[in-house]
Structure formats: structure tokens, C-alpha cells
Design a protein that fits this description.
mainly beta; seven-stranded mixed beta sheet; four-stranded antiparallel beta sheet
């Protein structure tokens, strides 16, 4: 049984930092894309960041514009774990953050329905 379990969410003041983790079990995702999506109340789930292993010690990353320069996605394939370092957090970053894994085509890597596995989500709340 494949499981993705997020952790690291919480309440933080604007300008603060959080580090989310997503531990995968049941299979390895070494060559798959792993990413983060978020969903704020009353809004659709949106793409945040993704990382794909493309060769020896080489990864391709992609970020939505609103988090570029503030968030960093990384992964440790030996631990089968995905991370999201979030700095300079803003109130508009408040959402439930989900990790996902799958094999989306490169041109559709930002589309949530292209991912096969999802975590249960972790709440991130940024106060002003």
C-alpha cells in the first residue's frame, strides 16, 4: 500500500519559515515527479512546486511564480522523502499543503490530475 504522509505544517507569523516533509512508503519514487500543491478555503487546489530526477545527481524543479525565490523543493531519494522549505511566508500562503507523486508528462507537470498518489495534507497558517 502506497502512502504519502506530510508533516511540518503549523502556525507562523508573516516573514517566518516552515519546512514541510513528505515521507513515502510502499514504493520508491526515484524517477517519478514529486510535487507540492495547496488548497486555500474556497479555492481550487493549485500547483506550488515539483521536482523530478533526470539523471545522476540532477533534478529538474519548477515553481509557481508566487513562491519563486521564497520556497525550495528538494528530495532525498535514499529516504524516499520530499521537502518544501518555505521562507518569507505571507498570509496568502495559508492553505492545506499536499504532496503528490506520479509520472506526468513534462508539459502537464503542473496539473494535479496527472499525479497518482497523494498525501492527506498538512495545514499551513500564516498570520499577519
Amino acid at each position: 500500500q502506497v502512502q504519502l504522509v506530510e508533516s511540518g505544517g503549523g502556525l507562523v507569523q508573516a516573514g517566518g519559515s516552515l519546512r514541510l516533509s513528505c515521507a513515502a512508503s510502499g514504493r520508491t519514487f526515484g524517477s517519478d515527479a514529486m510535487g507540492w500543491f495547496r488548497q486555500a478555503p474556497g479555492k481550487e487546489r493549485e500547483f506550488v512546486a515539483t521536482i523530478t530526477w533526470i539523471g545522476t545527481n540532477t533534478y529538474l524543479t519548477d515553481y509557481t511564480d508566487s513562491v519563486k525565490g521564497r520556497f525550495t523543493v528538494s528530495r532525498d531519494n535514499a529516504k524516499n522523502t520530499l521537502y518544501l522549505q518555505m521562507n518569507s511566508l505571507k498570509p496568502e500562503d495559508t492553505a492545506v499543503y499536499y504532496c503528490a507523486a506520479g509520472s506526468p508528462p513534462t508539459q502537464r507537470i503542473r496539473l494535479s490530475y496527472e499525479y497518482d498518489y497523494w498525501g492527506q495534507g498538512t495545514q499551513v497558517t500564516v498570520s499577519s
